[in-house]
Amino acid sequence: MLSKAASYAPAFLVALGVFFLGWAAHGFFLGWNAHHPDSAPQPRPPACTTEDQPRGPCFWDAQQQGNGHGHSFYVDEQGRVYTTR
Questions:
Q1: What is the DSSP letter of 35?
Q2: In angstroms, rounded to a whole number, what is the distance separating the alpha carbons of residues 28 and 55?
Q3: What is the C-alpha to C-alpha distance for residues 52 and 75, in angstroms, rounded to an integer?
Q4: Could you tell me the residue ranges of all domains in the chain?
Q5: What does DSSP assign to residue 84?
Q6: pLDDT tens across 20-76, in order?
Q7: What is the mean predicted confidence (pLDDT) over 11-27?
Q8: Largest pairwise CA distance in the chain
Q9: What angle do CA 44, 59, 69 make, to 5 degrees?
C-alpha cells in the first residue's frame, strides 16, 4: 500500500502543472510590459548639441545629426553614455 504522502503526489503534480499553464497563459495574453513597466518606451530627451557633449540628459541621433553615420546614444545627467541600436 502507498504511504499517505505518496498518494498525494499525483494531485500535487497536476496542481503544479495547472499553475504553470495558467501563469504562462497570463503572461502571453497580457504581454511582457504588463509585468515589467520599466521596459515601456520612454520619452526621448532633447537632442545633444554636439556629438561630444559631456553632460545630459540628451540624445544623439546619428542618422539625423552630424554626417548621418555612426551610432546613436543617450547621455544621462552624470555624463554616462548608453548606445542604442
A1: T
A2: 40
A3: 10
A4: 4-38, 42-85
A5: -
A6: 666 666 555 555 545 555 666 778 889 998 888 878 899 999 988 888 888 899 898
A7: 67
A8: 80
A9: 125
Task: Give 3-state DSSP helix, strand, coil % of the chain, rounded to 5.
Answer: 40, 10, 50
Beta-bridged to residue 81, according to DSSP, are 75
- CB contact at 8 A, 56 and 45: yes
How do residues 63-85 score in pLDDT, each as one tens digit?
888 888 888 998 988 889 998 86
Q: How far apart are CA 75 and CA 60, in angstroms?
A: 8
* CA-CA-CA-CA dihedral for 15, 16, 19, 24, to nearest 10: -140
